[in-house]
Structures are given as structure tokens and as C-alpha cells.
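Q: I'm writing up a methods section and want to include an example of the input and output format. Could you take the sequence below and give the corresponding predicted C-alpha cells, formatted cleanly so I can copy it straight into the document?
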Amino acid sequence: MSTNARTSLGIPYATAARFAPPQPIAFDPSRADGTHFGPAAPQVLDSPLGDIVPGMKVRDTDEHGCLTLNVWAPATDTPLPVLVWFHGGSFVIGASSQPVYDGAFLAAEQQVVVVSANYRLGALGFLDARSFGGVANCGVRDAICALGWVRDNIAAFGGDPTRVVAFGESGGGGLLLHALAAPTAAGMLAGAIIQSGATYATLDEARAATVLEALVAAAGVGAAAGLRDLPIETLIAAQGAAMSTLLGTVGMMPFHPMVDDDLLRARPVDALANGAAAGVPLVAGTTADEMRLFVPPDAEPAPREQLVRRVARYLRIDEPAAVPIIDDYARALGTDDSNEIGRAVISDNEMQVPCRAVLEAHAPHGPTYTYCFTWEGPNVGACHGIDIPFPFGNFVEGWDAFVGLDDDGRALSQTMQRAWAAFARDGDPGWPSYPAARVFGREVHDEGAHPLFGRLPRI
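A: Here is the clean output for your methods example:
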């Protein structure tokens, strides 16, 4: 494996007080060749989320030293395009230091500069702290601050500041999507790649207030201002307890970007429809069976009547309206298996529907592309997150077994690396624009539309 790229790890780009905006740190060239990653943002270290895909466990965290980034840069006499990575983890776990995100191979093979950045997570990154002197959307502010650092300093590493493309998966893709919607990020990006990160889960003020109330109650501080002085371990423990109580009211990701009428004035889909990222090329795609990662495939299939009730309740429609939707899915999937149908309904509603909405919102305003990732791993299918190692070429820490890596998988990885690098070079990933779609699987081909969008219910 060729890794002829200069590696510069743990470069601080900002510092921040708790619940306050990041304050940029001036670049110190003497720290440009760091050999150790910076600590991750504080998080639950034994979260079940850390076990569902390989290599997600984090051990080294520090609230006041986590805003760092890493650069992998080939030796060059010509400015190179730049790919900036934001990691996923449902906005509560993860770090840029995880080995699967190492950018050396991608940088050397595709002659691009690769950057990865940490950002604040959980309550530190996504609590609405305005009522007690803080701000909302600290994590999004961190991402924009990191992009500002790249714009101002990447030339020192051989990068072209006019060709900076950011990419992220899951929570990292959602983070990037909200950054695109923020007016303060205008002009920072020459493109964006959203991997399974389009979302309708942006919080409004009411739901953000519910999250704050739950965290205050879990922390036992009486008033929200008391959260400022909690030991970080206590705050993270309270965050976990609050998430459990919020599952039924706010959802699985209560610590999430919100519309605060300051940094974010609208949900991403609405901001994009109004031209927030006009002229910025966008790639947004999904895997073919997103929820397979979270829904056990071997559960006993429910009777049809129970499936009808579940789908009606999930989609918030009456049961007669759910029947034709279930029938349509049965035809599209070629099965009456209630587990498979139910999982597809949830996958589509959570991932495909918002992805389609983002594409349709942006398409009138800039070059727009979509894809469907169909590679199937043993026992997990084309699940959420299975695409993570392919753009990097790093099948480490069990990823090779998780994805079922073989020669076809290695070829697919090379194809995705070339596509992402081409998009960074000139804003064109190498396939026709939306509504056409690239299918990344054992065979890579193009279709006239995203292969899953045709089955989506419009309700």
C-alpha cells in the first residue's frame, strides 16, 4: 500500500469554553508535523453505538483539547484539491483518530490533500444553551471553524483553498448538511458529499427545549446554568440518561443541530431550496438497506395485521392507508416477509425520503448527483455505515470481515476513491447528474434514477 503522504496530526484549530462558540487558534507551523492525534470530544466510552460497526471505540477524550484536525498531503509542486472528512456517530460518539479514517492512502493514491476534524458531540455540541448565556449548534460552529482553518492554511500543505470539498457519513454527513445551510459557511466549499446523512431530524425550539429540560433533570442541577460547572463525567452520564427518556418524544438523536435563527435560520432542505448553497456541487446518497444495521433480520416475522398497525403508527397514517403502501413494498421487494417490508419502510422514511428531498431542493441551484451503495456484507447486507471504509481504502480493525472484502470490494474501493477525488478536482464525480444515479456494488453502473426512490410513498 502506497502511503507517500506527509502526515500532520493533532493540529489545534480552535478552543472553546463549554456551550460557547469556538475561538480560532492561529496556525503554528512548528506544530504542523504532529505525530499524535488529538483527543476526541467527550463521549460515553462504552456506548452500544460503538459496537455496531468495527473500530468505533474511543478512549482518549478531553473537553478543552478536542478541537483538532489532521492533514495528509502528498509532496507536490502544484496545488492539490482538498477532501475534508467529518466522522459520524449519531452526533454523540466518534473521533477523527479512528484508524478507518486514516487519510494517507487516499491522499497518496489520488493526489489530494485529506483533512479530518473533530467537533464537539452530544450536549457539548448540540444543546440549546441560549437561555443561560451560551449558544446552540456548537458542533456545527466547530465544523465551520475547521473549514475556515482549511481555507486559510491548507496552502501551506500544498492544498488548493479554492477546491475544498467536504465529505461525511451519517452524523458527519448531517453535520456537513447543516453547515451548508448556514450563511456563515457561504463560499467555504467547492463541493460536498453527504453519505447517508440527509435528515429531517433538525430540532425546532420546542423540541430543543424538551432536550434541555430532560438534561437538567437527569443532571439534578435544578437550573440549566448549573450545567456549566458540572464535572464532564457527570455531564456525559446525565446526557446518556436524558437520551433514554427522550427516545419516545424527540427520537433517537435528541442531541442534534437545531434551527436557532442565528447560525441556522431554516432546516437544511428549506435552506437549500432557497439557494443557501447555490452553485456548490453536491453529492448525496444512501446505502440500499440502511436500517439493517439497527433492526435484527432474524426476528420472527409479525402477522400482516400487526405489520399494518406498525406501519400506520410509524408513518402517522390510518390503517387503511397503510395497506396499499405495504402491498407496494411487497411487490417492489418481491417478498411478503413482514420483517423485510417493515425494515424497508423505516429505512426509506429515515434515510431515502430526506435524501430525495435534499437532492430536489438543491438541484435547481447547483450541480447535483446521487448514488446508491448496494455492496452487501455478510449478515449485515447493504446496511448503514458499510460504505465507510471504501473511500479511504482502509479495511482495518475488522472492517475486512464486516464488509466481506474480496477483489471486487477492493476494486469498488478504488472506484469510489477515484470518484470522490474527481469531484474534489472539478465538481464532477464521473456520472450523470440527478435524477440519474450511480450504483456502487459488485458491479458499478448508472441508472436513470436512484433505484430505491421509485418505491417511496408520498404521504
